[in-house]
């Protein structure tokens, strides 16, 4: 999974508004490609789950994931990577959480904390 991930990545904790957080792409991995119909978009995965296009999956099971944002023990921040321009953010960790947030965006805060790594060489990563 980490083949091609650059050694030099600048890490920071950023806060993303919901619309930007939901634009983060899944990694280029079969399961997430299938769930999102090849788009790598969490909002498309959420649409497909709601529409019953994913066998054995419905949105009800995902709600506790999103609701945890408002608990006394919220989940840790997502981890994403991007090039320095931040034109494309790709999730490194937190795919289940991001899917839950896409299904239940009403739980998202005004600003979602995300650990963001940027590197001019990030497109060398095989999952980018």
Identify the strand order in the major beta sheet: 1-4-2-3
- What is the CA–CA distance across the termini? 10 Å
Give unreliable regions as ranges: none
Count the strands? 4
Structural class: alpha+beta
3D structure, described in words:
It is a single chain. This protein has 128 residues and is of the alpha+beta class. It has a single domain, classed as Conserved hypothetical protein from pyrococcus furiosus pfu- 392566-001, ParB domain (Alpha-Beta Complex), CATH 3.90.1530. The chain is built from five helices and four strands; from the N terminus they run βααααββαβ. 28% of the residues are buried. The mean pLDDT is 94.
Relevant terms:
4-stranded mixed sheet, 128 residues, Conserved hypothetical protein from pyrococcus furiosus pfu- 392566-001, ParB domain, globular, single chain, alpha+beta
Secondary structure topology:
Elements: E1 10-16, H1 18-21, H2 30-35, H3 42-50, H4 63-67, E2 78-82, E3 89-93, H5 95-103, E4 112-118
Parallel strand pairs: 2-4
Antiparallel strand pairs: 1-4, 2-3
Short characterization:
The protein is α+β, with helices and mostly antiparallel strands. The protein has helices at 18-21, 30-35, 42-50, 63-67, 95-103; strands at residues 10-16, 78-82, 89-93, 112-118.
């Amino acid at each position: 999974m980490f083949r091609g991930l650059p050694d030099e990545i600048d890490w920071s904790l950023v806060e993303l508004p919901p619309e930007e957080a939901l634009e983060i792409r899944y990694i280029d991995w079969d399961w997430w490609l299938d769930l999102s119909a090849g788009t790598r978009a969490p909002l498309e995965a959420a649409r497909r789950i709601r529409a019953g296009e994913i066998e054995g999956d419905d949105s009800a099971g995902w709600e506790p994931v999103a609701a945890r944002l408002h608990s006394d023990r919220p989940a840790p921040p997502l981890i994403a990577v991007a090039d320095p321009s931040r034109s494309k953010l790709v999730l490194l960790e937190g795919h289940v959480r991001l899917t839950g947030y896409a299904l239940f965006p009403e739980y998202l805060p005004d600003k979602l904390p995300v650990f963001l790594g940027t590197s001019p060489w990030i497109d060398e990563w095989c999952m980018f």
